[in-house]
Amino acid sequence: MKLSQLKHWTQANTGTLPHCIVTSYAGCADYLMEVEYKHHLEPLKNDAGEMVRFQTLDQVGELLRPLGITSVTLRVTDPYDEFSPDGQFSSCREDMTIAL
């Protein structure tokens, strides 16, 4: 989804705001964002078609708060976390809600 489409969606007064997921990958300094659209996650891209990257969660808030979005899901993905503490298989990711 392009950033311009996200802005248009939030200004259209449809009654619902998009669900945004900010992903942090182990070993990567940037955050990437996906927007849930029709039960699928669409990566957020700029008008040139490149993924929008964020250095901090504050930057995410600076973009989304003016659009009326007050919280996101932070998804931390760690491919090295293969097993949980009890020895069972782990999904290697954890989701948490972050208020902007």
Low-confidence stretches: none
Strand content: 25-35%
* Average pLDDT over all residues: 89
Helix content: 10-25%
Oligomer: single chain
Overall spatial form: globular
Major sheet summary line: 6 strands, mixed
Q: Helical element count?
A: 2
Order of helices and strands: HEEEEHEE
Rg calculated over all Cα atoms: 15 Å
What's the total count of β strands? 6
Question: Which structural class matches the secondary elements?
Answer: alpha+beta
Structural summary, described in words:
17% of the residues lie in helices and 33% in strands. It is built from 2 helices and 6 strands; from the N terminus they run H-E-E-E-E-H-E-E. It is globular. The protein is an alpha+beta fold and 100 residues long. Strands 1, 2, 3, 4, 5 and 6 form a 6-stranded mixed sheet that branches. The longest helix is centred in the N-terminal third of the chain and has 9 residues, at 3-11. A hairpin with a 5-residue loop joins strand 1 (20-25) and strand 2.
Quickly list its features.
6-stranded mixed β-sheet, 100 residues, alpha+beta
Provide a short characterization of the protein structure.
The protein has 100 residues and is of the alpha+beta class. It is built from two helices and six strands; from the N terminus they run αββββαββ. It starts with a helix and ends with a strand.
Per-chain topology:
Elements: H1 3-11, E1 20-25, E2 31-37, E3 40-43, E4 53-54, H2 57-64, E5 71-77, E6 93-99
Parallel strand pairs: 1-5
Antiparallel strand pairs: 1-2, 2-3, 2-4, 5-6
